[in-house]
């Protein structure tokens, strides 16, 4: 750990310190608020959501939400205090609020980097064109650009691939997809049967939108199961993760697990090699409409339809993701 890190005290002393400082357990970071801090290798935070939303002592909640400089300032200061650290490794803009200018956001973010409170910047749940504009502004004005994009992406929901992946490729951004396993809805027939029996007993995990698998989820799970057998994989979830890792470069999925076997499945993805044919087979289950203008010009990975009509040539391949 960096020497700047303050060593954690024993839990009893932590409780006393929080009590003295007015910080309760409920005020600590969580997935529901702006500071989604995960202390694994680095500390990651996100600002934009109103983390004072449920605080009855705060009347002017507008100062604690959005992309503006005030929201950023109070968010970073509160996170540093709660986490008892002097800096944040990676700070995300949680979502784009459409009410703050690109220049204000990038200037304010650059300031906290210059102050030594943040090292790297990321952005989440924001249109590709805004990210491109923000990074262009940052580079032209000598500011700190974004280095990673976080968004919803899995083998069943691939709308992420329309604009975000080409943008990230052009900007040199890493990708950190959330919902990589569709909220746990990728299950084999045997696993679904076990889930159904658990639901009948009143046990089992609760899922947003219901626990039963949809027709689409069943179809994707069957395709994952087929590819898993071909690839010699033990888990279809490992195949779903491998798809993301091998679709494009610099992919770092956000993964979790409630049981040891969940983590084993996550790690197994690193040993799976998917062939181009297997990737196409998985994508064919739920095709993505590229929309306009992608339906005509493609995504840059191959010669566009119009260029192909004029000349006989091939596209030089982009850098490829690492494979086992």
Automatic annotation (TrEMBL):
Which organism does this sequence originate in? Answer: Tetrapyrgos nigripes
Q: Which residues form the NADP-dependent oxidoreductase domain?
A: 61-285
**SUPFAM superfamilies attached here?**
NAD(P)-linked oxidoreductase (SSF51430)
Please report the name of this protein according to its UniProt entry: NADP-dependent oxidoreductase domain-containing protein
Lineage, broadest ranks: Eukaryota, Fungi, Dikarya, Basidiomycota, Agaricomycotina
Q: Which of UniProt's keywords are assigned here?
A: NADP
A Pfam family assignment: Aldo_ket_red
Whether NADP counts among this entry's keywords is yes
* Gene3D superfamilies on file: NADP-dependent oxidoreductase domain
Question: What does the similarity note say?
Answer: Belongs to the aldo/keto reductase family. Aldo/keto reductase 2 subfamily.
Region entry Disordered, spans: 1-29
